[in-house]
Fold Biosynthetic peptidoglycan transglycosylase.
Amino acid sequence: MKKKTQRHAIAAWVFKTLVKFFLVLVSLTLLQVVVLKYVNPPFTVNMVWEWLRHQWFDAPYVVPAYEWRNLSDISPHLKQAVIAAEDQRFLTHHGFDFQEIKIVLTQAMEGKPPRGASTITMQAARSVFMPATRNFVRKLGEAWYTLFMELIWDKSRILEIYLNTVDWGTGIVGAQAGAHRYFKTTAAGLTRDQAALMAAVLPSPHKWSPVNPTPYVKKRQQRILAYMPNMPLL
C-alpha cells in the first residue's frame, strides 16, 4: 500500500512538473511571437547559431548582410514570385498545407525523389527562431512556432518576416541583401525576371545562384513567371 502511494506521489509530481514546463514554454513562445508582431527582429537565432559555431568550432563564418525592408518597400514581383515558388496556398492554409503534405507522401511511397512541404510560415519560423540544423527537433520547433505565428500574425506580417530573414546564400539574409548582392539593386527595384530567379534558388541558395543560373534554375524561373500573374499581392 505504501509503495502504491509513493508511485502515485511520484506520478503526480511528474505530471505537475510537465504541466509547469508546458506553461512556461507556451508563455515564452507567446512573448517572442507577440513582440515580433510589432518589432522587427534585429537578428535571428540562426545568425547567432552561425556565429557560435564559428566561435566554438572554428566553422567558416561570413558576417551576414542584413537590412530590414518593410513589406511596402519590397518589389511586388518578389512577393508574387516567392508565393508562386514556395507556397501557392499561402493565403488559404493555417500554416500547414495538408494538401501538399499528402502529395509529398504519395510521391514518396511511389519512390519519387523527396521534396519538402514546408509553407512560408514554417520557413519563417525556421529562419527566425531555429538554428540551421537538420534534425527532428528543428522540425518540431518549426511546427510549434508556426501554430503561434498563424494565430497572432496576419499573412502580411508573416510574408514580411520571411522575406527579410530567409537565407539567400552565404552571408546573405533577406530580400534587400539578396537584391543588392546579386543584381546591384534594392528589394523594391527587382524586375519580374530578377524576382523569379531569386525565388527559383530558394530551395538551395548555397548551391544555386540567380546570377549564374543552371538550366534547372532557368526552368524553375520560367515556371515561376508563368504562375506569378495568378498569385496574390500583399
Remarks:
- The chain has a mean pLDDT of 91.
